[in-house]
Amino acid sequence: MFAQRLKSHHELHNIKKDFTISRMDVNEYIKSIPGVSREAVIYIHIPYCRKICSFCNMMRRLGSPGDDYARLIIREIRSYGELDYIRQLTFQAVYFGGGTPTTLSSRAIQEILAALRESFRLADDAEITLESTVSELTEEKINVLHEGGVNRISVGIQTFNDRGRQLLGRNGSGKEAYQKLLLLKSLGFENVNIDIIYHYPHQTREELDEDLNKVFSLGLASFSFYSLIMHPDSALQISSPSENDTDRALFDRLYARSIDQGFAILELTKLSRHDRYRYITARHDGADTLALGAGAGGTLGDMIYMNPISLENYQNYVESGSDRKRVGVVTKNQYRTVARLIGAMQRGRIPRHEYADLLGGRGQRLTERLLAEGYATETEDGCRLTPKGIYWGNNICDTMLKNLEI
């Protein structure tokens, strides 16, 4: 049914152009819409890494951010905190992404967290996540995060195998990574997620099992699993793993063993035991995303926007105060409905009854084919993807988007 697997949601058909109404200054738009009581999340982008992984093509700088970058974020926080629309939102989750957010100094992290609480209405049980690498998680920084109210950590392990770690450009050994995760849990963090990459060049089934055995023994709340994408603009310039039965065989083994260990699919690329991952589930349900930091993108009301990518332009934008201008895209209200449908499919569901009008005849026929060919099974609220469907999940989502009746 599908010729080549789409491994990331970033490869999906771009629907934004189908729903764009106009372009408008972000601040003018926010001031023009009435305040509404709704759930929202916050994304804070830290585009710095002390080492660039060989497989990465993200926008980032080598090194660590100075305290001036944290001050820019705090200034942006306080500016948003003055807007009526933002004051009406209740933020269910805060996510520090990157890059490597723990390249921020302990003091900078504490000051940003304090500014968030001073300027915004955070839910009493708000989920606060920081991404990190093993080398950044010193015992001192772990304690600072815990004391500051961070209650979820996501660590980019990628693999515990030393050959694989060297190939992917990771610091330290697999044993050191494992011991650091044990330390993280012993110091009070129960909600720990890690990233695992599989199907890196010449990976064997035994090497995958080595990673899975360590994942299971750690008692993690969740883990993300990604089949290696060989980006043309990354440093990893070797022959790409062939798109053949090996990729599917490794996926099937990873999935089956994880289900046997009590994990369940939270997203197409995430398995969870007890991780609610409120940041992403709220986004999938259509919550606003307030984006802070250089290159951060978000949605407020019916507007999609992105901060300047370059640090210099971001600094100029924040420091210009009331004179700052930044253009966002105003979309039709239906865009939020489509985003919720995408969110459901990213969680392995096709709610065909709830979205019958949007799916239309073409979408319903596609769903029937997915059921007939074993990609999905019927449920009361529509259908749920089988392991085969999860493997091809992004292709299914992409095809469905191209066949919406809008």
Overview in brief:
By secondary structure, the protein is α/β, with parallel strands linked by helices. The chain has 16 helices and 18 strands. The strands form four sheets. A nine-stranded mixed sheet has the order 10-11-9-8-7-6-5-2-12, with helices on both faces. Strands 1-15-14-13 form a four-stranded antiparallel sheet. Strands 16-18-17 form a three-stranded antiparallel sheet.
Main attributes of the structure:
single chain, 406 residues, alpha/beta, TIM Barrel, nine-stranded mixed beta sheet, four-stranded antiparallel beta sheet, 16 helices, Heme chaperone HemW, rSAM, S-adenosyl-L-methionine
Question: Can you describe this structure?
Answer:
It is a single chain. The chain is α/β, with parallel strands linked by helices and about 400 residues long. It has a domain at about 35-285: TIM Barrel (Alpha-Beta Barrel), CATH 3.20.20.70. It has helices at about 15-20, 25-30, 65-80, 85, 105-120, 140-145, 160-170, 175-185, 205-220, 245-260, 280-285, 310-320, 335-345, 355-370, 385-390, 395-400; strands at about 20-25, 40-45, 50, 60, 90-100, 120-130, 150-160, 190-200, 220-225, 265, 270, 290, 295-300, 305, 325-330, 350, 375-380, 380-385. The strands form four sheets. It has a nine-stranded mixed beta sheet with strand order 10-11-9-8-7-6-5-2-12, with helices on both faces. The protein has a four-stranded antiparallel beta sheet with strand order 1-15-14-13. β8, α9 (about 205-220) and β9 (about 220-225) form a beta-alpha-beta unit. α3 runs parallel beside α5 (about 105-120) and α9 (about 205-220) runs parallel beside α10 (about 245-260).
